[in-house]
Amino acid sequence: MTIINTIQHRALKGGKTLVLRHVAGFVINFLGGVVLARLLGPAEMGSYFISFTVFMFGRALIDFGVLTHFISMHEEPKNNDIKTAFTLQQILGAVYLLICILIAAPIAVRWYDVPGIDLLVISAGLAAYFYSWQSISLAMFERKIEYGKVGIIEVGEILIFNLAAVGISYFYRDGVLGFSVANVLRGLVPAVLAVALSGFRPEIALQFKKLREMIKQVYPLFSVNITLYIVMIAPPVIIGNIAGVWEYGLAWMGYIFLQYTMVIATVFQRIGLATFSRLQKNKAEFDKFVNNALKLLSVVYIPILMGLASISPVVLPLLYGAKWIGMERVVIIAAIPLYLSALLGIFTSALLSKGKYKLVMSQSILYTVLYWLTMFIFVKQLLSVSMPVAHLCGIVGSGWLLLKGYNKYCGKINYRPNIFLLAAGLSTMGISYYFAGTGHIVYSLAVWLIFVLIILVKYKEILPFFKKILKLRTEDGRQKTERT
Length: 484
Prior knowledge:
The chain is mainly α. The chain has helices at about 5-40, 40-65, 65-70, 80-110, 115-130, 135-145, 145-170, 175-200, 210-225, 225-230, 235-245, 245-260, 260-275, 285-310, 310-320, 325-355, 355-380, 385-410, 415-435, 440-460, 465-484.
């Protein structure tokens, strides 16, 4: 078997493993989330989500682009590079943990006035620190296309967190203790698994010249997502403080309820970015592909996303219990900016394939400013609903930059189909939501069935395009494998 065939075999096997990992992760997180929501309630879940933000922000900071840097290197990383990267991450992890203990935790106690919030913040900082022990191992596994080991580590993290959080919350009825222990274990267990599976022998190399060189190499990979991290901390800072952790818990759980539908949007964006780069020399075909992708995304995504949101008055109480009444208001509004974000993701991919990084960054910065500003303005009146409203205002207020940029550099947008589909989807969602709210779930589902039938008949010509993009994606994946 040739090297290319071996890599292709590994890639195919790895792809199947990744699918299983996502399925396993979804099932564990979904079941764990439902049990925790019923056991605890919005206030304790809101407190946990604050610590989750601390954890995710810290993990991104501690990684500092090292994972992506090592994965994308053309040659195998040298031993000195690995030592330097590990040293950098240890320094960042230790500093972040100290900041959580000495600064963030005391501030959180004053900012939120919630019992146990300091313990949650410190446990999240410790969990983030432990990521410095697994990042390099994960990079090495991905370089070798050993997704089975990646899956063991990632599913192990999800499993141990949910087992600890659910177990302690159930037996001790103490959400703060449960989430604090679970936070620590979600960092410690994957770190142990990563070191054990990789055989990685950590070594500290305090060579300041090497550290400076490493920072120069990886900082751009970290900074490209800086606006994402700033957006991430807005809800806990604004909603958690002004509206309270109860409302923050409602807002976060509302988004979690819809987040699994976002896989569809992610697939379209990844397919788009891979395919657009192949169509650079054919402007007409490029423009046709983009407009067809927009139309197909709307046909597929609207019934799933808005359909799920419209039946939330019936589904949410069944899943999470009576404590979560009111979350349906978050869900029904959040569906709109999530759909618009999916559309903008295609424009983002198109512009990135043309090298318009500054334009995309400008849109991201404007979105961040509008998100913070509108959330702060509306939070006192709208409480938890200010989160999707700020999301919508940010998308609408900044998205025009991407539309203008596309029309200038890439082609011409055909607005008519997507405006029609959006208007039809919003109308159907509103009618279905009304029926669900009055307890007529059959009528609610029937409305969406009619919508789907009409759309499939009206846009039946778009279905062959779906097969086409799958074929293009398969070919692109094969070529990437051969280049590897």
